[in-house]
């Protein structure tokens, strides 16, 4: 039957945390990361439609800083960077909340901050989590694109994957518009290889 995709949309709310990070590549190939949740914050849209900013600012007198890395338990050193970290809150059609940091299979959203050349025919720049949790930018370029110089608004430049349907009920392949010779419409994301399309009854399924 496959994994059914579902759409989440961004709110103007964020989960706020006090973050300390240090030691690039020292913790599973990344930074040590220590977080203390402190509540919710609010975003405002900037004049540029592709950007928002957080209303809240870091209190210089804040004392609730975390003391250990959330991944490995390493003690936070005195020199570790300090940051007010915001995690954008997304919701599904039922109002359930999500974070784009969560690798939930089938979760789909519009990466509205993407450049125009990475937008589909409906003006959206769709990203979805594959069955293994890896993010796949449907409307972005493939790593093995054969026409890397051909980028521009949809209908002028090609798409490495083309799609039809209304998100999240979409089918993705090579037969719905101008495309390149990369692949055969399948998806390769880390250890996942498959297709996004119909389960035999409706589109919007990983198979």
Major pleated sheet: 5 strands, antiparallel
Quaternary state reads single chain
Q: What is the molecular shape? A: elongated
Count of helical stretches: 0
Q: List SSEs in N-to-C order.
A: EEEEEEEEEEEEEEEE
Helix fraction bin: under 10%
Mean pLDDT: 90
How many strand elements?
Answer: 16
The proportion of strand residues reads 35-45%
Uncertain stretches of 5 or more adjacent residues: none
Task: Output the structural class.
Answer: mainly beta
Structure characterization notes:
By secondary structure, the chain is mostly beta strands. The protein folds into two domains: 9-100, no CATH class; 103-207, no CATH class. Helices cover 0% and strands 42% of the residues. The protein has a five-stranded antiparallel beta sheet, with no helix packed on it. Strand 6 and strand 7 form a beta hairpin. It is elongated. The model has no long low-confidence stretch (mean pLDDT 90).
Q: What descriptive keywords fit this protein?
A:
0% helix, 4-stranded mixed β-sheet, 2 domains, 5-stranded antiparallel β-sheet, single chain, mainly beta, 207 residues
